[in-house]
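ligand=magnesium ion
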Amino acid sequence: MATQFVDRVVLQVAAGNGGHGVASVHREKFKPLGGPDGGNGGHGGDVVLEVDPQSTTLLDYHRNPYRKATNGRPGAGDEKNGADGDDLVLPVPQGTVVKTRGGEVLADLVGFGTRFVVARGGRGGLGNKALASPRRKAPGFALLGEPGETRDIVLELKTLADVALIGFPSAGKSSLVSVLSSARPKIADYPFTTLVPNLGVVTAGEERFTVADVPGLIPGASQGKGLGLEFLRHVERCEVLVHVIDCATLEPGRDPMTDLEVIEEELAAYVPDASLGGVPLSERTRVVVLNKADVPDARELAEMVRPDLEARGLEVHIVSAVAHLGLKELSFSLARHVAQARAEIEAEVVPQRTVLRPKAVDDSGFEVRRENTSDGEVFRVVGERPTRWVRQTDFGNDEAVGYLADRLNRLGVEEELFKAGAVAGSTVLIGPADDAVVFDWEPTLSTGPELLGRRGTDLRLEDHHRPTRAEKREEFHARKDAQREAREELDTERRSGIWTDRDLDEDDE
Ligand SMILES: Nc1nc2c(ncn2[C@@H]2O[C@H](COP(=O)(O)OP(=O)(O)OP(=O)(O)O)[C@@H](O)[C@H]2O)c(=O)[nH]1
Ligand SMILES: [Mg+2]
């Protein structure tokens, strides 16, 4: 079969990059050095999913699974900030579940207008105007914009309807939706006419409810045969399941009782998504509809099996979608079941219609890990902020690199490196495994002396696996040398007016 069922897509989204900040100096006639005036880069646009009533399938994403929001514009001189990138809003149908590739549910999108940010835009970099301070009057650098998040996500559509019509292909499910509601799904006498569930709104007296014609099921559907799993996914959210049984089929091996049992087996074998908190399919309300009763033989067969079905405790309706037989009774009965199911759900109080947010990341901390790699021992700094600061740094600019060192130091990264046993010249990696920046560490250690204990024991050495006396001495001297060098360097920089102690991390909050 050449048809493709598209209620599950893998989407690659990329948020916009932040624009770079700019380092610029104000120029005026007779005032050659008018101070820093480089503007900030704009923030990159986010990629946002939004539940849209106009959207019914994920087909568009199947055709074009790469989506990117626009970048922030770079800053400019004369204190001009770059414009922010536009958010990219992707409309999705009601009932779209957002997952990671690993299957973790990120969000369950219900309710028109519900929004979920799947990829955050990168922050724009600060320009030198914003980086200036009373002590660092003319920064000769700016911060880079950060790259936007990129992500692979899986979208799955799980139709939200009160009633699902299920059954073999060509049983007349779409025909029933078309006569029960004002929806006009495609109807044809070949199997798998319906590829995406059609939703119809049914009004019966005071009650209003939605019915969906789930595409035809075949044996093995729960194992993914035919388009089974895709179809069964839609049944997951429906409270009332209606077996639509074709009493006029001439296919060998088919009769109402067998058809019912085959479909029931598929329902029982389907494993619902636990994270959505659904009741197992086998426990949902069932109604049996024996269709095509306008055909005399079919009517006879229906009357014949009716008592057997009722003996199993099933409610049975003999109808004809084509001749409009038994439809009124059917819709009123469905309305009753729906009302009852709704009352039960309300009694449970559990609000199902919430958006699950991805776990909040604590971005304040960081961690230093000592790792052994093929290139020897390395120290890896893992944390939201250090990683971000590295991304903002223009490594071609010494002043910018110095500023980075200063920020890291203030966060306490140096101290932690010492505690972990790093010495001058150690290899330090900052950032995630696949995308780390490598440094040869040159400690500046402005906080060093306080850490030295009364009798010259260095507290930082204590929780380590007992170095020998010689090792200690060596390490101590190495550190002393490093401290001295670092102090001298800092001093030179201070004197040349590059440094300030002002905390410039307001952009982090
Ligand atoms: N005689 C008769 N034919 C019917 C009746 N209901 C549906 N049909 C016919 O059965 C065929 C299949 O109907 P559909 O409504 O498309 O069936 P379906 O269950 O949606 O099929 P799939 O979408 O393929 O799963 C069409 O040719 C319909 O005209 C009925 O009550 N009586
Ligand atoms: Mg159909």
